[in-house]
Design goal:
With about 180 residues, this protein is of the alpha/beta class. It contains five helices and six strands, in the order E-E-E-E-H-H-E-H-H-E-H. The strands form two sheets. It has a four-stranded mixed beta sheet, covered by helices on one side. Strands 5-6 form a two-stranded parallel ribbon.
């Protein structure tokens, strides 16, 4: 059984999901794949300690602090490949970005393969069920394209700007998956 609650944020209403002990989801209102990782329905319930901890984490984040994903008990739902990609995302430092290609190279090493598809990595990044905390917004195209954020390009830009990312070499693509 999964539980949910909502909270306001500077980027819109956020829905949190939990198995009762760990955080299993964080989605922005209108986000692609909203709630998709959770099989079945979620019961609204606010008085779960991990929800309080996640809300405090988000308050600190939006206040410009640099909380780490490791501060919260996380249980994102996904297969082994996705879990490995999400682990890499958690290692992208606050205020930094990493390319899909860089993640693919790291995955190739982890899986003992000569190469790894950037598209496979992109699928895992895009299906991250705990956005913001598992910082998929910090992933950009190899050419500096701000693409591939399920929460929308405007939200991705707001989050990166909040973190103080140097946006001078990044750009919004004329067309793409994040638009």
């Amino acid at each position: 059984m999964y539980y949910s609650t909502t909270c306001p944020s500077p980027v819109g209403i956020i829905t949190l999901a939990s198995d009762g002990e760990k955080l299993a989801g964080l989605w922005l209102e209108g986000q692609k794949y909203h709630g998709g990782a959770i099989a079945g329905s979620m019961t609204e319930k606010e008085d779960i300690p991990v929800f309080d901890a996640a809300k405090r984490w988000l308050e600190r984040y939006f206040a410009g602090e640099k909380p780490s994903a490791s501060e919260l008990p996380l249980a994102p739902v996904g297969g082994e490949f996705r879990q490995m990609v999400w682990e890499i995302l958690c290692g992208i430092p606050y205020g930094s970005v990493m390319t899909y290609g860089d993640i693919a190279k790291r995955m190739a090493v982890k899986l003992n393969r000569p190469t790894m598809s950037g598209q496979a990595v992109g699928g895992a990044v895009g299906h991250n069920p705990i956005s913001i905390i598992i910082p998929c917004h910090r992933v950009v195209g190899s050419n500096g394209s701000l693409t591939g954020y399920a929460g929308g390009i405007d939200t991705k830009i707001k989050l990166l700007e909040l973190e103080g990312v140097d946006m001078s070499s990044l750009f919004v693509p004329a067309k793409g998956s994040a638009l």
